[in-house]
Amino acid sequence: MLRPFVAYLRVYEPLLALGDPPDDRLREAVAGAKLRRAAIGEREQFLWLKSQAVARLLPAELADGRPAPSLLTDVLVLDPAEVPVDHPGAGPFVCPLELRARSAAALVTFLGDAAPALKNAVLDAGGVTADRARSRTKAAMVDLTTAAAHTLTTTWTVPLPWFVLVDPDERKLVLGTGQDDPARELSWRTSMSDALTRAAEAGELIEAAFGDSGPGRVLSQTRQWLESFDPDSVVELDYGGLVQLFADPILESDTTAEEVHDILEALRTGNVEELAELFSELREFWGDLAARERAN
Predict the structure, then answer these.
(1) How far from each other are the two terminal CA atoms of the chain, in whole angstroms?
(2) What b/e sequence results for 72-104 when a residue is b if at least 16 CB atoms lie within 10 Å of its CB, and e otherwise?
(3) Alpha-carbon dihedral sign for residues 104, 232, 75, 4
(4) How far apart are CA 174 and CA 127, in angstroms?
(5) What is the Cα–Cα distance from 267 to 248, expressed in whole angstroms?
(6) Phi and psi for 209 in degrees, rounded to 5?
(7) Average pLDDT in the 72-77 region?
(8) Which residues form the DUF8083 domain (predicted)?
(9) Is a pLDDT exceeding 70 seen at residue 232?
């Protein structure tokens, strides 16, 4: 079974940042560490389909609208070997799934942005009014222990500003036995302090060159999101299910992170020719996935 074609930007906070003391159920879930990175997409898909089968507005909630027990037990725990070298904070480092709250945030955006006909069709299908939907989503946002959810997602591609946060040399590549191997992974992990420093430096360069629109806005929003969490956190950029779309040689030779940092250096030096060449290479690499998304 294919994993959803979703990439992730995650924040793993120290356990004590999620409650001092943390809830006993959370402690047990962290100690057991049953949820695996490769299974995240399937878990989210299962919870969503389950909610639709019983006509619930949001996944991972009970029939009366309260959060399901998975609120505290669906967590990713960073293995000590995966914590960046010389990281100052003490683990364990935990990333709650928070699917109910994340879905609620997406629904709020939909209610605000969707065309009236589409919005009404969705609400009618769910048997709820707009006011009721807003009330339920507001209640779901209380699930969050911080000002923001610990996970950002994107389908079929990875926003280039996300690569600004990581050091290209921090890449972890696991090819496994093929494109459908659950262990297949391409990811980067870095300390929160390093991610914020890189974001600030890159933000100045991008804003000076392109203004506060496009990549600059994405990077600024991402930086504000990161500032919502404990300064001793770990940041992870994970290709997630996208690794299923690349053959081994293509995944091995993916230099997107390096090229994004080369773009920043070209901006520093004013090398217009190199900028054009790098943008062309990135457009060619990610353009294939864009074509597949349109085909699907």
Answers:
(1) 17
(2) bbbbbbbeeeebbeebebebbbbbbbbbbbbbb
(3) positive
(4) 45
(5) 32
(6) -90, -40
(7) 92
(8) 5-293
(9) yes
Contact 38, 3 (CB under 8 A): yes
| Spatial distance between the Cα atoms of 144 and 138, rounded to a whole number of angstroms | 11
User: Are the C-beta atoms of 174 and 187 separated by less than 8 Å?
Assistant: no
What is the C-alpha separation between 235 and 151, in angstroms, rounded? Answer: 10
Per-residue pLDDT, 53: 58
* Structure tokens, 116: 């009236």
Beta strand ranges found along 64-198 (DSSP E): 75-78, 93-96, 151-155, 171-174, 185-191
CB contact set of 178 (below 8 Å; sequence gap of 6+): 184, 248
Look at residue 175 and give its three-state secondary structure.
coil
d(CA 276, CA 86): 37
Joined tokens for residue 266: 């070209």
DSSP element (H, E) containing 57: none
Closest CA to 106 of 153, 62, 145, 42: 153
- Among residues 215, 278, 258, which one has the least CA distance to residue 207? 215
Q: What residue type is 36 in one-letter code?
A: R
Kind plus residue range of the DSSP H or E element containing 13? strand 6-14
- The span from the CA of 230 to the CA of 17, in Å, is 7
119-162 confidence digits (pLDDT tens): 888 788 777 788 888 888 888 888 887 889 999 999 999 999 99
DSSP letter for 14, please.
E
Token reading at 80? 């000590």
Q: Give the Å distances, CA to CA, from 228 to 36, 147, 258, 292.
A: 25, 6, 27, 34
Q: Which two three-digit tokens encode residue 208?
A: 């000076």
- Mean pLDDT, rounded, for 201-223: 90
